[in-house]
Design brief:
The strands form 4 sheets. This protein has an 8-stranded parallel barrel, surrounded by 9 helices. The chain is built from 18 helices and 16 strands. The protein has 2 domains: 275 residues, Aldolase class I (TIM Barrel, Alpha-Beta Barrel), CATH 3.20.20.70; 123 residues, Double Stranded RNA Binding Domain (2-Layer Sandwich). With 562 residues, the protein is of the alpha/beta class. It is elongated and about 90 Å long.
Length: 562
């Protein structure tokens, strides 16, 4: 089994993505999590480029107790006509005091002559001496051959000579970079094979580079791919297949422009598809959690369609597919989702068949419902989706539809009527007020509340009306409120769909409403959310209280609808 070195650059290359910014604390937490997962190298940043990276390196040395991973400092070769010992940037790499240093240099003659504006020979000197100097300081040195594949296409001989310079300098690893992300897998494979054949890097046998050069067989060969052509992961796998045993990437593919190779998919593919030793089976089961952890700290929503770890990666919607999955769960799955910390999901929508509903009935624990009741709900869902509802993100509403088919079903509360008003009151500006009348068992409650919008006012009024009977309701808060215009050509008469995500601090659930009136759609989703909670919360009990309820001034939902 081929062993692969994992080199994570989320904390360096990943932070170059538009919209991604980690604090020093974030970077320390991510580094610790990557170490727990089993990553070999963690590139922490570029010393001297910003105060945050310097803080990370200083604190990492004191605070991180790494079990496996090595922290890497990243920087360039020395400047033109400058000795490494006299180059401030090289000195900052040494002062970062990391066990590993990653140095990048130019492999493409165009970059040398037009960007660095120096000679090809001077560039080779810069690579060789920079690597040798850092190596002499007792550091493990990884050489990143920037723009290698573009350089290889333009002038293979010179591109190879830059690698040779790094090996002569004493590099422990040579990493070929598709910096512009424009290569395709077969181009990557061809270049890797040429490097192995011509220079002997990573072949595992002795091969003399030149009369005066060291042997290169022990040098590790790596790949660093970007995703500008949508082939970052494919290129990484092609490189491994061609002989690379060191892969670089970022968690979730974060990176400049179109991002880097997604290390999440690379890890899963290497271990599950190519039989490479990357992590343990237990470690692999943490992959989804790792992905979501990093996206949370990046303050970005996880990509629900991300391969292997996305919420929708193993979600089945079409009735035909679900029918097959019920018979054999692997009929529409390429791997066991549990292997990467994910799970099989069945969705409910207008595309559903009877098996979709049957699966959800079992999932909700409603085994007493009949096949006929399932068919009734299936028809309801198709009709409601035609009217603008969308149930695949509102499973709590699906469960309520199933429960309501039971002739003995009793809702925790019954709406009698409600009003919602928005007014502009002079210097006070906009004011929203809602009145709600509900029946709970044999009691009727009539309450009014003001809010920062009509939906917020309805929320507060409903809580106020029933919380004396159901005090556990105070635990509910709204996580998200989404409105979608369904037929924009109808202008102000368009139908709208409202999706509400709610939580009690431990669970989360989604509900949906649709109407030509945004308040009515919101009320449907909101009341479903409360009803679902009261039915499924183990701590909820009927609490008959005659006293007036306390005001709910401290409850915040964050819902604003003007």
């Amino acid at each position: 089994m081929k062993t692969i070195q994992l080199f994570d650059t989320t904390l360096r290359d990943g932070t170059q993505a538009e919209g991604v910014s980690f604090s020093a604390d974030d970077k320390l937490r991510i580094a610790a999590r990557l170490d727990d997962f089993g990553v070999d190298y963690i590139e922490g940043g570029w010393p001297g480029s910003n105060p945050k990276d310097m803080e990370f390196f200083e604190r990492a040395a004191k605070e991180l107790k790494l079990k496996r991973a090595k922290i890497v400092a990243f920087g360039s070769t020395c400047r033109v006509k400058t000795k490494p010992a006299n180059d401030p940037q090289i000195q900052l790499l040494i002062e970062a005091n990391t066990p590993v240093v990653s140095i990048f240099g130019k492999s493409w003659e165009m970059q040398v002559t037009e960007v660095l504006r120096t000679t090809l020979d001077e560039n080779l000197r810069m690579i060789r001496e920079s690597v040798a100097y850092v190596k002499a300081q007792g550091r493990e040195v990884i050489y990143d051959a920037e723009h290698f594949f573009d350089g290889f296409k333009a002038n293979p001989e010179y591109a190879l000579s830059t690698l040779k310079a790094a090996v002569i300098g004493g590099a422990d690893a040579v990493v070929l970079c598709d910096t512009n992300g424009g290569c395709l897998p077969w181009e990557i494979a061809e270049a890797i094979e040429t490097v192995r054949d011509e220079l002997g890097i990573g072949v595992g046998v002795s091969n003399q580079l030149s009369v005066n050069s060291p042997r290169s067989a022990s040098v590790t060969l790596g790949i660093h791919a970007h995703n500008d052509s949508g082939t970052g992961v494919a290129n990484t796998l092609a490189a491994v297949r061609a002989g690379a045993n060191h892969v670089q990437g970022t968690i979730n593919g974060y990176g400049e422009r179109c991002g880097n190779a997604d290390l999440v998919a690379v890890i899963a593919d290497l271990q599950l598809k190519m039989g490479c030793a990357v992590t343990t089976a237990e470690g692999l089961r943490q992959l989804a959690d790792l992905s979501h952890f990093v996206s949370e700290l990046a303050n970005l929503s996880p990509d629900s369609h991300q391969p292997f770890v996305g919420h929708s990666a193993f979600a089945h919607k079409g009735g035909t597919h679900v029918n097959a999955v019920v018979k054999n769960v692997m009929s529409y799955q390429h791997v066991d989702p549990a292997a990467v910390g994910n799970q099989t999901r069945v969705l409910v929508s207008e595309l559903s068949g009877k098996d979709n509903i049957a699966v959800k009935r079992e999932e909700f624990g409603l085994r007493w419902l009949s096949k006929e009741q399932e068919r009734v709900v299936l028809h309801q869902i198709k009709d409601l989706e035609n009217a603008g509802f969308a149930f695949e993100s509102a499973e709590a509403s699906v469960e309520l539809l199933l429960r309501r088919t039971d002739k003995d079903y009793q809702s925790p509360f019954e709406l009698l009527d409600y009003t919602a008003r928005v007014a502009h009151r002079g210097e006070r500006g906009l004011s929203s007020e809602a009145t709600v009348k509900v029946r709970v068992c044999d009691e009727v409650f009539h309450e009014v509340s003001e809010g920062n919008g009509p939906v917020n006012a309805l929320d507060l009024a409903l809580r106020k009306a029933i919380r004396r009977v159901y005090p556990s309701l105070d635990r509910i808060s709204l996580k998200d409120y989404k409105v979608r215009i369904l037929d924009s050509q109808s202008a102000t008469g368009a139908r709208v769909r409202v999706l509400i995500d709610s939580t009690d601090g431990e669970r989360s659930w989604g509900t949906v409403g649709a109407s030509s009136n945004i308040i009515e759609a919101s009320w449907r989703a909101l009341s479903d959310s409360f009803e679902y909670f009261l039915l499924t919360d183990e701590g909820t009990e009927y609490n008959r209280v005659e006293a007036e309820s306390e005001p709910l001034e401290m409850i915040q939902t964050g819902v604003v609808v003007a």
